[in-house]
Specification:
Length: 288
């Protein structure tokens, strides 16, 4: 895949638009009642376990762009969480199924679609303030991957976390091949990404993926307490420190996303993903 194909697909660039209207109910934006400079973003599709869709990505980008316009008197920290029993079940299965259709697997259509999909959620890294993922429940696939792009993670003890792409017949995406090795090292990342197995919230904390593992009911309160502490620090110092901390993690990210999108496009054109999707529908393990 030639790099030149992606000259207009710059990671985290402002202003790109999906081709349809947003749905304000997909993601909610609220303010902490104690410290209003702390914003709370909540995935709000609990009946679908907050599976990530293109429409949700569009709405998420709109909110991030809105927050990026706020100064330090308006915004000092952001908490990201999910409604219901899951943080996010990952990429919407209908979205994945559509990627396997013949007209989508020709040329670079799926590569471009996946780069836009990644950007629509990884734009969270454009926020100039600390972003804390309050992982209130299960976080799977792309849903778990996007938390790796945030600055801090607090997770429920009993939450199930997995980058289960290979179990589905798909190459990992959403920056997971870039961010996970930075957190846990090459060996642990290799096992997690190649096996697609699950870990608990407690295991995530022990591995250094999460800062804290706490009872489910205290995930959001603990994240808010942490955000309030940061919101009371010097906003100039916090924002400049954040830029420094993120600089190393940003190095090589765009190349990694291009590799992921290209590899996922290859998987969409192969039969394994169809077997994986059918196995989910039939509720049995896939036979590859």
């Amino acid at each position: 895949m030639q790099r030149k194909l992606f000259g207009v697909c710059r990671l985290l660039r402002p202003g790109f638009r999906w081709g349809y209207a947003s749905n304000a109910d997909l993601i909610t934006l609220s303010r902490d009642h104690e410290v209003p400079t702390v914003a709370v973003l909540q995935f709000n599709q609990p009946d679908k376990l907050n599976a990530l869709t293109e429409a949700m990505g569009h709405r998420f980008t709109e909110i991030i762009e809105q927050l990026c316009t706020e100064n330090s008197e308006q915004l000092r920290a952001v908490v990201l969480t999910g409604a219901g029993k899951a943080f996010s079940a990952g990429g919407d299965l209908a979205f994945l199924q559509h990627r396997t259709e013949p007209d989508m697997t020709v040329g670079d259509a799926n590569v471009r679609t996946m780069l836009r999909f990644y950007e629509s959620f990884l734009c969270v890294r454009r926020l100039p303030v600390p972003v804390i993922s309050a992982i209130n429940g299960h976080a799977i696939g792309a849903g778990f991957a996007m938390t790796l792009a945030t600055d801090i993670r607090i997770v429920a003890n009993e939450a199930k976390l997995a980058l289960n792409f290979t179990q589905l017949g798909l190459h990992p995406g959403m920056g997971s091949t870039h961010f996970l090795p930075l957190l846990v090292g090459h060996q642990n990342a290799s096992f997690m990404l190649l096996s697609g197995g699950q870990i608990s919230g407690v295991e995530a904390k022990d591995m250094g993926i999460a800062l804290r593992a706490v009872p489910k009911e205290t995930v959001l309160p603990d994240a808010l307490a942490m955000a309030r502490t940061m919101a009371k620090a010097s906003p100039v110092a916090v924002r400049t420190t954040l830029l420094t901390l993120r600089a190393e993690r940003n190095r090589g990210l765009e190349d990694a996303l291009i590799r992921e999108a290209d590899a996922q496009a290859q998987c969409y054109a192969a039969p394994d993903l169809l077997r994986g999707l059918k196995a989910i529908k039939d509720k049995h393990p896939p036979a590859f």
